[in-house]
Design goal:
- This protein is about 5% helix and about 40% strand.
- The protein is mainly beta.
- The strands form three sheets. The chain has a six-stranded antiparallel sheet with strand order 3-4-5-2-1-6. The chain has a three-stranded mixed sheet with strand order 7-12-11, with no helix packed on it. The chain has a three-stranded antiparallel sheet with strand order 8-9-10.
Length: about 180
């Protein structure tokens, strides 16, 4: 799962705006005997797993009992899942939250960027690629496709209302 752009650095993945739930992560193997499961998620999504938060797995509702950091990543315990066999039954399941989190200033959902006009030079944002160092906008300009790191220095303006992004043209990086 990808990240969120903060001050020009990254993006957050999410379900579409009309989808009632947001994918938070996927449950891994049980840890210990008391119902804890590893969870594969992005650090930004850990806020959905705070104790007493409501999450959804398949058609069932669960309350988060505890969230802790294990040796190999975060682990979650859910109310009603108090032993290893109960945790094993949830292994591999996707975890959803009821709604998206509020974005901070300078953060964008990837699907809101797709389709934006690219200025100057023309083109359109056709996809968003998520990387370890930074995310990248995939730009289609005529028959050329290229990537621009989604950092404030190279993408100083994102105007969703007007429907465009401004990129700084760098020779060899963009299709000048």
């Amino acid at each position: 799962m990808p990240q969120v752009r903060k001050k020009g650095s990254t993006l957050e993945s999410s379900s579409s705006t009309d989808h009632p739930r947001v994918l938070v992560g996927r449950l891994g193997k049980p840890n210990g005997l008391d119902g804890f499961l590893g969870i594969y998620t992005e650090s930004e999504n850990l806020s959905y797993l705070e104790p007493q938060s409501t999450v959804f797995i398949d058609d069932r509702t669960f309350i988060v009992r505890t969230l802790r950091q294990g040796k190999k990543g975060p682990q979650v315990a859910l109310e009603g899942v108090t032993d290893r066999p109960g945790a094993e039954r949830l292994r591999g399941k996707e975890v959803y939250a009821a709604r998206r989190r509020q974005l901070q200033e300078g953060e964008f959902w990837p699907q809101d960027l797709i389709g934006l006009e690219v200025r100057p030079g023309g083109g359109e944002v056709v996809a968003v690629t998520h990387g370890a160092a930074q995310d990248r906008l995939i730009i289609q300009r005529r028959e050329l496709r290229f990537e621009v790191p989604f950092v404030e220095e190279l993408v100083p303006i994102v105007d969703l209302e007007e429907g465009f992004v401004e990129i700084v043209e760098v020779e060899g990086l963009s299709a000048l």
